[in-house]
Amino acid sequence: MAEVNLNDWEKKSAEHTKQYKNFLQRADKNKILKQLPKLHEEAFKKIDCLKCAACCKNYSPRFKTPDIKRISKHLKLKESFFIDTYLELDNDGDYVSKTSPCPFLGDDNYCNIYDERPSDCHRFPYTDEDVLLKRPAITLKNITFCPAVFFVLEKLINS
């Protein structure tokens, strides 16, 4: 497999958008799903999320009911107070953060509720699961700000 150069990955990602879209539409899903765990692990050996945190700085995960219950309990807040203080409903009817960056992101790019973070945060950037293929619009959005998604797609396309 070819080595992926992460220098100027944002520019390369923008240049390859059409290629990624075509690839995701035509991908051999079973073949790719087998490769994802290894590629995900390889990506995170090369990429330090704490140096980036673009996901936490620019986007919000969905806060599902179990997330809200768990985080509220952890913060020792009533669920209604937690929702009123930190969350709002988006156009899809999902709870998301009212503010950007995430109110739980510290100045050091560490998450202040890391062990209790929403399941979307835990799973992000979905490079080790079928979301990468099943929801190509999300993958194409994520590749614009996450070098790990860029890394995995470049590896898949060039394999």
Number of domains: 2
Ranges with pLDDT <50 over ≥5 residues? none
Through-space gap between termini: 5 Å
Query: Outline, from the CA principal axes?
Result: elongated
Structural class, by secondary structure, is mainly alpha
| Rg result | 17 Å
Query: Number of helical runs?
Result: 11
Query: Strand arrangement, largest sheet?
Result: 1-2
* Helix percent band: 55-70%
Mean pLDDT: 94
* Strand segment tally: 2
Range of strand content: under 5%
What are the secondary-structure elements, in order, as H or E? HHHHHHHEEHHHH
Largest sheet: 2 strands, antiparallel
Question: Would you summarize the structure shown here?
Answer:
It contains 11 helices and 2 strands, in the order αααααααββαααα.
Write the layout of secondary structure elements.
Blueprint: H1 9-15, H2 17-26, H3 29-46, H4 49-52, H5 54-58, H6 65-75, H7 79-86, E1 87-89, E2 95-97, H8 119-123, H9 131-134, H10 136-142, H11 147-157
Antiparallel strand pairs: 1-2
Helix pairs in contact: 3-11
